[in-house]
Structure formats: C-alpha cells, structure tokens
Amino acid sequence: MGNKVLKMGVIGVGLQGESHVEKFQYFQNSEVVAVADINQKRVRSVAKKYKIPHAFTDYHDLLALKEVDAVSIVLPDHLHVEPGVAAAKARKHVLMEKPLATSVEDGEKIVKAVKKARVRFMINFSNRWWPQMRLAKAKFEAGELGDPVYAYARLNNTIYVPTKMLKGWSKHTRLPHWLMSHTIDRVRWLWGSNVKRVYGVCRKGYLKKLGFDTPDAYHATIEFRNGAIASFESVWVMPETLPYLVDSQMELLFTEASVLINTVVSGTEMATTKGKFSYPRMASQSYTGRPQGFVADALQHFADCMVEGRKPEPTADDALAVLKATSAVVESAEKGEPIDL
After folding, report:
1. Residue 262, helix vs strand vs coil
2. How far apart are CA 14 and CA 59, in angstroms?
3. What's the pLDDT tens digit per position in 218-232?
4. Are 307 and 3 in contact (CB under 8 A)?
C-alpha cells in the first residue's frame, strides 16, 4: 500500500460497524475517511460523531473514492457477496465480518473476486486473538500438549440476539454461520487441520412460534483430517435474565494435556442497584477512550498488515474452509445424514 496511515471505509454502521469505526479512528496507523449505510439518519450520525468527511447511503459511492485504501464490510450475514465482490473489483483491500457468506456459492464468488483483483483479504474471526487461544496455540506448537484428541466448544446467545438485536434478519442466517463459524475456526486454527466429515442436528420450534423462522439450536460432531474429533454446540434461546449475553466455553483434550477455556467469567463481577448482576466482557470495550480486548487486537492486526504490506490472517481460504464446514452442518441437519468434505 505504501501509506503510513491506512485510509478506511466502513460499509454498514450498525452496532458492530460503529465498533469498527471507533477502533480504526483510534489506531495510530489508520483513519476512517468514509462510511456507508442504507439508513441515512444512522450513517450521518456516525459520521458526525467520529468526524468522518464522507457519508453515503450507497456503498458504491464509497468504493469510488480514490482515497479509500481498504474497506470493512460489516453487514448482515446474507448480504456479504455483492459488496465483497464490488470492493475487490474496485481494488480495495477487504476486512469482512464473519461469516464469509451464508452459502458456499456466494463465498466462492467473493474469494474468486479477491484473488482475481489481487487485493488483501481478512475474515474477522476475532476469537483467534483471545489471550487464552494464543496461549494454547503457542503451547501446542511448542509440542507441550501432545497430539489433538478431542475438543468441545459451545458458543451460545440469549434470545435477545435473534429476536431483538438481529430482529430484521435473523431468519436469513443459521446458527452454524452466526456462531459456530467462530468455534470451528478456533479448533481448525489451533490444530492446523481441516474438516473431514460433519454430522449436524438442529432443534426447531420455539423461535418459529415467536415469528422468527430459524432453528433454536444446532449440535455438530465433526471429524478432522488429523484424526481428532470435536463437538460444537450453539443455541440462541437462553433467557435474557442471565448475567451475560454470550456463553462461550471450550475444552481441549490432547495426548499429554487438557485445556479449559471459559470466557463467561471474565474475572470481574458487577452488581448495581439499577441493573442486574453481570460479568463485564472485554471483547470490545473502551475505557477512557481506549479500545481494548480481542476484537480491537484483531482489527489492529488488519491495519498493521495493510500499512506494512503483509498478508493478514485469517485469509480468504480460511474463510471459505469454515463456510464449507458450517454449510455442511446446516445440510446435514436438514438431511439427517453425515456430510463428507
């Protein structure tokens, strides 16, 4: 790229999109110069709040700006393919929120466009930047844990997520794409092994009765090519009365070690007279104006790679490999039979 400061455009400035804006505006080597969102009031508000010179309701106008080096695509799961392909054709480097897409066909279109344009691409599997995962990865690669045997990973949400946070589009995605993509990527990255066979099941009913046509829960048993197996669980009908929005726990068994990771209990407990008991999360927090946590670390990695001319990770190939696995979970649950990759 050659610039000392990365000029960013952010497409989609909802809750997560604004988080991207905040962080790229804070980093010393990046600056948000344009934002785009179909909600005119929202995009103007974000632009004003963060002193961004350009605000558009059509992302094509953002992509037409010569000053934009890279874009962050932070849109609903099923709306990634068109802006992803358009950004590549416009020769913009791409950071995309997971998942890559909600179908393998759409994912392959994005990857093909990125490779044809020779732009750098990163899928934001930010869980790779958990300190716990970094430690486990280092210990594994140093040979201190032995060979992989088994993994159990659950990543769940309260019912607030499909019925309120994603109310307008939760029916357009499935839990393997929305949540399980993170956990499959964690295990795949940690073990350095691809998925071989998938068997998935799902439970339907509760959300459908509430008017949201999407399954309540998925479970998958996955065989990896290194011979190890893993169980993945994702549900999003936990009660809102829980003291956390996200339930994320993981157990890893090796021939010479076991590793337990629990990100629900952050080490801080808080109870106030005006709110419910909580475990404040460090995924994407800002204290005294400074973004902290693994989400910030992931975005900083992208900015550093762009400025230094390095290839960021996870790559487009990583994104597509995980999409094939999550799509296989959905297909297996629908057919009631294992899917080989």
Report:
1. strand
2. 14
3. 999 999 999 999 999
4. yes
Quick check: helix, strand or coil at residue 193? Answer: coil
pLDDT over 60 (residue 2)? no
Please list the alpha-helical segments (H only) found in 249-315: 294-308
Domains and CATH numbers, the chain: 6-127+294-313 (3.40.50.720), 128-290+321-340 (3.30.360.10)
Alpha carbon distance 51, 72 (integer Å): 18
pTM: 0.93
Q: What's the CA gap between 140 and 143, in Å, rounded?
A: 5
User: What are the beta bridge partners of residue 158?
Assistant: 238
Residue 263 has a pLDDT of 81
Segment 33-79, tens digit of pLDDT: 999 999 999 999 999 999 999 999 999 999 999 999 999 999 999 99
Integer CA distances (angstroms), 262 to 221, 266, 282, 289, in order = 21, 8, 13, 27
| Structure tokens belonging to residue 258 | 């076991």
Q: How many CB atoms lie within 10 A of CB 199?
A: 17
HEC sequence for 120-178? CEEEECHHHHCHHHHHHHHHHHCCCCCCEEEEEEEEEEECHHHHHHCCCCHHHCCHHHH
The CB-based long-range contact list for 282-287 (8 Å cut-off, 24+ gap) reads 283/126, 283/246, 284/19, 286/22
